[in-house]
Design a protein that fits this description.
single chain, 100 residues, 2 domains, five-stranded mixed β-barrel, alpha/beta, two-stranded parallel ribbon, OB fold (Dihydrolipoamide Acetyltransferase, E2P), 16% helix
């Protein structure tokens, strides 16, 4: 039986493009959903919370990761970020890396 869809969760230091290519080679035509995605901060909220607009146009509520908080990484409106999506609630995410 061939799988119809797959969910990919990997740390940000993995080569996601390579992983996706290998999965597509092993299972041609499978629909993949990634656990990480990029977005742009659209608004800053209280308590290190942010509204982030995804590349698809949807908005999610995101908080910064502990390492970013520990290193006092500042985020402002317009910053591009990499996020890990929650597998349980696709409206929430954790910001793990500032891209710009």
């Amino acid at each position: 039986m061939t799988p119809q869809a797959g969910i990919l969760f990997a740390a940000i230091d993995f080569d996601h493009e390579l992983i996706l290519r290998r999965i597509q080679q092993a299972f041609p035509g499978i629909a993949l959903i990634g656990g990480t995605t990029n977005g742009e901060i659209s608004s800053v909220l209280a308590g290190t919370m942010f509204r982030v607009k995804l590349e698809s146009g949807h908005e999610v509520l995101a908080h910064i990761s502990g390492k970013m908080r520990k290193r006092f990484i500042r985020l402002v409106v317009g910053d591009k970020v990499k996020m890990e999506m929650s597998p349980y609630d696709l409206t929430k995410a954790r910001i793990v890396f500032r891209l710009n």
